Amino acid sequence: MHYPALRKDDSALAPLSHSCGSESAVAGRGRTIEVVWCNDPRQLSLAARHTPRLGIATALAAAQSACERSRMVNSLLHLIGFSTFAYFALEFGRERVERLFLHEAFIPGTYRGDYVRERYHDVDPRTVAARQGRLPLVWDLQQLHARAPCLERGDAAQEGLDGFIKMMREDGMRSGLMFAMPIPGTRMHAFMSFTGQRRTHDWITSTTLEQALAIGLSVHTVAAQQLTAAARERTTDELTEFERELLLGIAEGASDKEIGRRLDTSAHNVDYHLRKLRKRFGVANRTELTYLTSKLELI
């Protein structure tokens, strides 16, 4: 199989333009986002009835602890030349990161410390390229650093990017690949990151990429359901009873006037709160709002 992303001229590198705990991280310009840690249950179930039953996914689902799942993935990583793997998700609202979700079983030590503490998820150029690209992003630090000046950044963001690259270099994460998958029914993209110690990405062949995809998609198959549950839990907690009734009203096809009469308020007030809900959920209209909240089982 031929992958343009592996050409040595690097021209195909994408442009760089369930119980859970949480904490806060300050994003760019003082904006605070929530960091959600998803704990790992003793046993996972494969998420969807029609999900391909990959051998690795079945083994991961049957494992009895986060440590066992982590050991399984790490042993597979080393066989294909990588040293670390990370599985995490970013929740977006109007193209802005609102939450960072980290899965206990699939997060290396670096992501547990500096990546969160220094909010590098906000300046990591790989996540933008992986989310927008049609192919997995194959990268090395030299390329990331060389392409960074093409971005329009303020001083704080540039300092953050320099710190991110410095951290990656010091921790031996000098090359690798990353790909992203949207999680249906949510505003989240899950990211699968593979890193190695070699200075250039030339060692990542088509075979290596295929093997990494098998590992990453297997992890996604068993872990995405926990991220979805965590997002649903937090969104449900944020809704007021009034907002729930609004969502039920539009799901039933009621007009603003009809919803207003039901809730003893004006149509203008209904429209105002529905606009706030559309902004919160990052959707453009009532149909998208109904669809998303139904998928999240909020109504």
TrEMBL record:
GO function term, MF aspect, one: DNA binding
HTH luxR-type domain segment(s): 232-297
BP GO annotations: regulation of DNA-templated transcription
Pfam families: Autoind_bind, GerE
Alphabetical list of SUPFAM superfamilies matching this protein: C-terminal effector domain of the bipartite response regulators, Pheromone-binding domain of LuxR-like quorum-sensing transcription factors
PROSITE patterns for the chain: HTH_LUXR_2
DNA-binding keyword on record: yes
UniProt cross-references to InterPro entries, sorted A to Z: Sig_transdc_resp-reg_C-effctor (IPR016032), TF_LuxR_autoind-bd_dom (IPR005143), TF_LuxR_autoind-bd_dom_sf (IPR036693), Tscrpt_reg_LuxR_C (IPR000792), WH-like_DNA-bd_sf (IPR036388)
SMART domains named in the record: HTH_LUXR
CDD domains, alphabetized: LuxR_C_like
Swiss-Prot/TrEMBL keywords: DNA-binding, Transcription, Transcription regulation
PANTHER family: DNA-BINDING TRANSCRIPTIONAL ACTIVATOR DEVR_DOSR
Descriptive protein name: LuxR family transcriptional regulator
Organism: Trinickia dinghuensis
